[in-house]
Design goal:
Elements lengths: L4 E4 L8 H19 L8 H8 L2 E2 L2 E2 L4 H4 L2 H14 L6 H17 L11 H10 L3 E9 H10 L8 E5 L10 H9 L7 E5 L2 H10 L2 E5 L6 H4 L5 E3 L5 H11 L1
Parallel strand pairs: 1-4, 1-6, 4-5, 6-7, 7-8
Antiparallel strand pairs: 2-3
Helix pairs in contact: 1-2, 1-5, 2-4, 4-5
GO molecular function: hydrolase activity
Organism: Sellimonas caecigallum
Protein name: HAD family hydrolase
């Protein structure tokens, strides 16, 4: 079946994950401890980093920071706080995470670095009459701001994010919304992402998946789950050409 829509993950797929999220996390975790009066708890900072998938400055491709929503991250943090017998309110923690990460990623020193010449890529997809969407665990506000800063927001036919209503990936909600709004079938969608979670997201909706190696995952992490593996989203047009040739 012809691909009529490409649904992109954001971080690690369209923009550099490490320069944005890892650096933001290294600001947010100490701030979270300070703001909540947890500063006297030994080893809490390391435990919180590990809970979101950061160990010794390295990101776990299957850890929370790589793919989870803020609500899910709050749950992971809550389990750590409970072990330390510290007060935990899930909604308050989720709200704090959202606000602090948004602040860290929208500051003047935030590093929003594209992993391809996105304007050219999106222009080419539009020329092929392919719908373009974004499906991210980031908040709506942060995702829109990021795409606007990169000058590509206008190309998007759909922007799915953490809005408190749709279930996060790998639940198929955002993909089904993307397909429905653009009057295409889920099987006509190609998901491009850098995590196993993105590949499961595609599979649950009956879409195709392209794992990219520009983010947190290595080929071995994606091999079992992705229909295709490519170095970066720059290869999407070539992949589409190859798929066209199979029809």
């Amino acid at each position: 079946m012809k691909i009529r829509g490409v649904l992109f993950d954001k971080d690690g797929t369209l923009i550099d994950f490490f320069g944005l999220w890892l650096e933001a996390a290294q600001k947010v975790v100490p701030e979270f401890i300070r703001r909540n009066g947890f500063s006297g708890c030994e080893d809490l900072e390391n435990a919180l980093y590990e809970s979101i998938g950061i160990c010794d400055g390295q990101v776990d491709p299957n850890g929370a920071l790589a793919y989870k929503s803020f609500a899910e991250i709050a749950e992971d943090i809550g389990r750590v706080l409970e072990k330390y017998s510290l007060d935990f309110d899930k909604k308050r923690t989720e709200d704090q995470m959202k606000r602090m990460f948004e602040k860290a990623m929208q500051g003047e020193d935030a590093k929003i670095v594209p992993l391809a010449e996105l304007g050219g890529l999106f222009e080419e997809l539009k020329a092929r009459e392919i719908c373009i969407g974004l499906a991210t665990a980031d908040t709506q506000k942060s995702a829109e701001n990021c795409m606007r800063k990169l000058g590509v927001l206008e190309y998007l036919d759909y922007l799915g994010a953490d809005d408190g209503r749709k279930q996060p990936k790998p639940a198929p909600d955002m993909l089904l919304d993307f397909a429905r709004q653009n009057k295409i079938q889920p099987a006509e969608v190609l998901v491009a992402g850098d995590t196993r979670n993105d590949m499961l997201f595609a599979k649950k909706a009956g879409a195709k998946s392209a794992g990219v190696l520009s983010g947190v995952s290595k080929e071995k992490d994606l091999r079992e789950y992705a229909d295709f593996i490519i170095p970066s989203v720059e290869e999407i047009p070539k992949l589409l050409d190859a798929l066209e040739g199979e029809i």
